[in-house]
Specification:
Elements: E1 10-12, H1 28-32, H2 36-39, H3 44-57, E2 65-69, H4 78-82, E3 86-91, H5 94-102, E4 111-115, E5 128-134, H6 143-153, E6 154-166, H7 169-183, H8 200-206, E7 210-224, H9 225-233, H10 245-263, E8 269-282
Parallel strand pairs: 1-4, 2-3, 2-5, 3-4, 5-6
Antiparallel strand pairs: 6-8, 7-8
Helix pairs in contact: 7-10, 9-10
Length: 284
């Protein structure tokens, strides 16, 4: 049975099944939880505007309930919690959930956090009005089973929102340069690209769901090269854990030399547009 947030801050659920991020394996989110929000381009103010969009999209009322598998530090749903909506979040990383809880003043009755494999939805049928996933379906081992579960826990008339933050192009280019440098080393592990052939839209359309695509928010993201290098040095992204610490920091030193040559200065600023996309599927 799901416990209320008032009873326990974080419920831990053990699972022996294959996980989107296996609990027995290294989880880099545990190591970056304290810097996660600072090293992403989704800010709290932007999240507030996205929340406005979502609430209008699902025609929310005071009784609307939300579930986010892979909730992390809560950046996507924190505005909903503050506004009093019932929110449940699942994440494999206790450290990420701890960061979420530290953002709160007191213990709200309307929030439940569960430490577990986010692809395992251990809730009764028809439990939530809205299920939100943000750039996480590709990490799930059996994505069709996961979507089956989402469909099962949605209430009649509910919504599944499959969303993602789009990385600002200038920031993506910076990362590609570093990936290319890492790839030159034969000891660097290949980055995990997730499941191939995922087609969430096709899955729901075949079931007769209404679908709608929208951009909840566009915004400009600016960083100096020094800031972006600082994020790498903090090992803030999955690509930073593909090789040994010794090799990684040697590559960062090489990359800093490249950046000085390519960008002209570590104080150079790169700016480009990010966006928050949502594919909304309405339950029949």
């Amino acid at each position: 049975m799901q416990q209320s947030f008032a009873e326990t801050l974080i419920v831990t659920v053990d699972s022996e099944s294959e996980c989107s991020v296996n609990m027995s394996q290294f989880n880099y989110y545990d190591h970056i939880a304290s810097i996660y929000d600072q090293t992403r381009w989704m800010t709290e103010s932007i999240a507030e505007e996205v929340a406005d969009y979502i609430l209008e999209l699902v025609d929310a009322n005071p009784h609307t309930s939300f579930l986010e598998p892979g909730v992390g530090t809560g950046l996507n749903v924190f505005p909903l919690v503050k506004r009093g909506y019932s929110v449940t979040g699942i994440d494999i990383s206790r450290e990420m959930l701890d960061q979420f809880s530290q953002k709160l003043n007191g213990i709200p009755q309307n929030l439940t956090l569960i430490q577990a494999d986010a692809s395992q939805l251990s809730f009764p049928d028809d439990s939530f009005n809205v299920v939100l996933t943000v750039h996480m379906v590709h990490t799930v081992s059996h994505w069709q089973q996961f979507l089956d579960e989402i469909e099962r826990v949605l209430k009649p008339g509910g919504f599944y929102l499959n969303a993602q933050w789009i990385t600002p192009p200038a920031r993506m280019e910076f990362e590609r340069y570093f990936r290319a440098m890492l790839a030159k080393d034969k000891n660097t592990k290949a980055a995990h690209t997730g499941n191939e052939g995922i087609n969430v839209d096709d899955y729901f359309r075949k079931k007769g769901y209404r679908s709608n695509y929208g951009i909840a928010k566009r915004w400009l993201v600016s960083n100096t090269i020094e800031e972006l290098l600082g994020f790498l040095k903090a090992r803030a992204y999955g690509l930073c854990w593909q090789t040994s610490s010794e090799m990684f920091y040697r590559k960062v030193e090489e990359f800093e030399v490249f950046c000085l040559e390519h960008y002209g200065s570590l104080e150079a600023k790169v700016s480009s547009e990010a966006q928050f996309e949502i594919w909304a599927y309405a339950v029949r």
